[in-house]
Amino acid sequence: MIPLKFKCELLTDVILNQKSASEGANQTLDFIPGSNFLGIVAGKIYKPKTKESLDIFHSGKVRFGDAHPADSENRALRIPASLYFPKGQFEKDRQHYVHHEIANPSSEDLRKIQLKQERSGFVDFCGISANGGTAIRFKVDTDYAIKSAYDRIHRRSQDEQMFGYQSMGKGMVYYFTIEIDDELKKYADNIKKALIGTKRIGRSRGAQYGLVNITEYNEFKEIVSGAARQDNLLIIYAESRLIFLDDNGQPTFLPSFEQLIGRKEIDNDKKEFEREEKIVWDKCQLRTFQYAPYNYQRRCFDTDRCGIEKGSVIVVQLKNKIEPSELPTHLGSYLNEGFGKVIYNPAFLEAQPSTNGLLAFKILPREDEKPQSVEKPQSKLVDFLMHKKEEKEESINIYTAVNDWINDTAKIRMFTSESFASQWGQIRSRALQAQDRSELKDALFKEGSGYLVHGVAKDKWAGKTKILEDFVNNNSPKAVVNLASEMQKRCN
Q: Model pTM?
């Protein structure tokens, strides 16, 4: 098997919805499914009824893996569903328990602390070893935006067409691997050529979303399977999503022993709890998913994908010891789309000896996820309120300056005759168009071209421009707009 390793950098926010429904609240995935990379390659080199297309996209011998977020040079994994922690503990102080390693779930100690399941986030397990160590936990950066459809006829937002988009944040880095069986290694260069470069993935790709840059990158580290256990238990961790089909070809959430191990259980005629080899369901922790993938080539939805979510843990009881190296690295169906990748007996699911399931190492939050100082806005709401405060303070300053100017009786008498009404209208128009104070001064007072120093206005403003110029020098164009509006009312 030939692994091709890649880095995927998000150049913009990326939307990969968990569900295909367009109505209601929708959340983004926190990883990039391998089907996205398959689609990129297929868009470049797929030709119907050719051997190359059949081998790469339909044989299952080329497997486009999921892209997981990066922690430095390590590829992170979804936090295992079999990890539990005492309810109410802060993240930095959590003591995790491994569900299938708990010998006595009804013990007084465990009943007191009330365990709660971990369900979200990614963990960098590359820092642990047989002697313990530390794993780093973090969450994918996400953003949320509300958009509206555009009414081209009335040139405004379309009624009843509001959409909320949650997206993975710009700037994140993901790592993924494409595995090619040895007999198809001749296609490796074509796959790399089609995949590398600036691409678009996900939804709303025609707008500002979905731009990524993919490069070949062989430096990142991945977690591999561990050794066989002494108790002949086989722990199967779902690195990617798993899809199993029953005898009728329908998706099932309960895989058979044969689908996991490749052979029938021993003593198949006995009841399940009496068998020497079986799936130990009471030690498993499975989470499920269901969605309908959209095929951009055919412009329609494909068959629903129903299966076991990544991070799930399946526990199998064996009669004889089996080394993980003897087992397949992928299980189930749709392997070419990134489904089916598993890790056997991983070191990150081992408990401390002589404890009731206590994890053998600590999981700590990543340092850059600590709360920011109070001086920095921590949410969009704080940003919005601070912006509103600045706007209000600016308005107060403008109204104060304008009121001071027009309360001067001499200025009012000088500039409020009927002949000045159109002049103030022109001044207001130029103040609205000006980007800054300097541009406004040129528009009004520049020698030879300024509105108030040439033409008809020059005679009316002769000897008076200095008074208005002092106001412009000390205030913003917005203040001049307000002053001109008020003076035009006085003239009329």
A: 0.72
